[in-house]
């Protein structure tokens, strides 16, 4: 099919869009403690961010397959921009909750659409490596945000920069051409949901369920976990920077390894680092470096999952990429909401400080337990998913 667009320009747009999502995903995590001290009840906002992301994820797939990418990308970016502006200006918890949901909707669409976009513009040979490179810009956006918040006490300054950059990206999106719709007929939300009847897609979706849950629990609650354990605020925010740095380095390395090393080896190998990181959260004050090392290992370990799994989904459902991604990411974001909710409940009960039980002389706090169970579940599920996918004929 003849292309009416520049692959490089569209790839840049996808990288810009996922960078916006990187800021949106960790917008609350880096400032939650400060926000809670200014606006009582702010600790509940991460679950509403997850709700918005789930809604956005549901919306984008069939719409993109039927109507194309350009105006959906622009609309999602405007929604994310509105959410960031609300985060900067609004002090009322009810209005702020609405803004966070809008931010989540925009972010959810951007997350799914940018991945589907890269999957569409590249062939099987380059899809995996380009997906990894694009995903690294998610980490780049999140890293710039968390690092800025750890270095600048007034988070409104980096937030203002993020707002300006998002506005500039929107102008760029308006100026370039995008791929045409893939399926103008027989595209609906029901058809997207029906794709989950394929065991390969369903299993990969549940891997992403736990992956997204890990990103939510680690990204939104790490700073509060460590500040409640006595780490000062700037150091606690820096742990989130280490988390995003770890994920960024993983995805840069993954771009060189994908296609040369088996997917299952990459996924389980990287997740082993994440498992080690979760174990370190059992000893949050064992040394000044423990919080930073723990979050770096978790970020580095979980960075490979989304690029590899989505690359496989894109290769299997090339005629319905948007719908397949939407279905898989809906399941994924349900995991994000589930584990955000579970982690919030654990924090409100004080379970991240008081041990749930002890193994020998080691107290097992609920935060460490949640993170450990998530990673272990992925490591057990991935071999099954890949085995089933080998026999799948998409």
Question: Would you kindly provide a written description of the structure presented here, covering whatever features stand out?
Answer:
It is a single chain. The mean pLDDT is 85. Helix content is 77%, strand content 2%. It has 15 helices and 2 strands. Strands 1-2 form a two-stranded antiparallel sheet. The chain has 394 residues and is mainly alpha-helical. It has helices spanning 7-25, 32-38, 45-67, 70-89, 93-121, 124-151, 156-175, 189-194, 199-228, 233-257, 263-280, 290-302, 305-316, 321-348, 366-390, and strands spanning 357-359, 362-364. It is globular, with a radius of gyration of 20 Å.
What descriptive keywords fit this protein?
394 residues, single chain, 15 helices, mainly alpha
User: Order of SSEs, N→C?
Assistant: HHHHHHHHHHHHHHEEH
- Main sheet: strands, sense, barrel: 2 strands, antiparallel
The residue fraction in helices comes out at over 70%
Annotation field: number of helices: 15
Structural class comes to mainly alpha
Rounded to the nearest angstrom, the distance between the terminal CA atoms is: 20 Å
Q: What average pLDDT do the residues reach?
A: 85
Q: What is the overall silhouette?
A: globular
Question: In what order do the strands lie side by side in the largest sheet?
Answer: 1-2
Low-confidence stretches: none
Number of strands: 2
Our estimate of the beta-strand percent is: under 5%
**What's the Cα radius of gyration?**
20 Å
């Amino acid at each position: 099919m003849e292309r009416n667009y520049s692959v490089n320009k569209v790839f840049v747009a996808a990288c810009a869009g996922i960078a916006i999502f990187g800021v949106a995903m960790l917008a609350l995590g880096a400032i939650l403690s400060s926000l809670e001290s200014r606006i009582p009840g702010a600790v509940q906002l991460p679950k509403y961010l997850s709700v918005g992301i789930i809604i956005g994820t549901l919306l984008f797939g069939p719409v993109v397959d039927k109507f194309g990418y350009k105006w959906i990308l622009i609309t999602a970016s405007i929604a994310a921009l509105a959410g960031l502006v609300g985060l900067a200006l609004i002090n009322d918890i009810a209005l702020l909750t609405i803004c966070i949901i809008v931010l989540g909707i925009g972010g959810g669409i951007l997350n799914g659409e940018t991945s589907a976009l890269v999957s569409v513009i590249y062939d099987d040979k380059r899809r995996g490596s380009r997906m990894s490179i694009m995903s690294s810009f998610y980490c780049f956006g999140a890293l710039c945000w968390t690092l800025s918040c750890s270095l600048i006490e007034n988070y409104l300054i980096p937030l203002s920069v993020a707002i300006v950059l998002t506005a500039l990206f929107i102008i760029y999106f308006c100026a370039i051409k995008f791929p045409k719709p893939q399926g103008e007929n027989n595209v609906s939300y029901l058809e997207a949901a029906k794709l989950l009847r394929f065991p390969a897609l369903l299993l990969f979706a549940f891997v992403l369920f736990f992956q997204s849950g890990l990103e939510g629990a680690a990204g939104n609650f790490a700073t509060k976990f460590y500040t409640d354990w006595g780490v000062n605020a700037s150091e606690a925010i820096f742990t989130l920077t280490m988390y995003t740095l770890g994920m960024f380095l993983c995805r840069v390395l993954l771009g060189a390894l994908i296609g040369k090393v088996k997917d299952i080896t990459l996924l389980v190998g990287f997740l082993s680092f994440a498992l080690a990181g979760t174990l370190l959260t059992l000893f949050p004050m064992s040394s000044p470096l423990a919080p930073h090392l723990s979050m770096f290992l978790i970020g580095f370990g979980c960075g490979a999952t989304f690029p590899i799994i989505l690359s496989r989904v894109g290769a299997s459902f090339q005629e319905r990429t948007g719908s397949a991604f939407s279905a898989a990411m809906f399941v994924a974001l349900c995991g994000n909401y589930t584990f955000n909710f579970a982690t919030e409940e654990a924090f409100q009960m004080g379970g991240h400080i008081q041990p749930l039980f002890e193994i020998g002389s080691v107290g097992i706090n609920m935060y460490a337990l949640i993170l450990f169970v998530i990673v272990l579940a992925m490591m057990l599920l991935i071999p099954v998913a890949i085995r089933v996918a080998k026999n799948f004929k998409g």
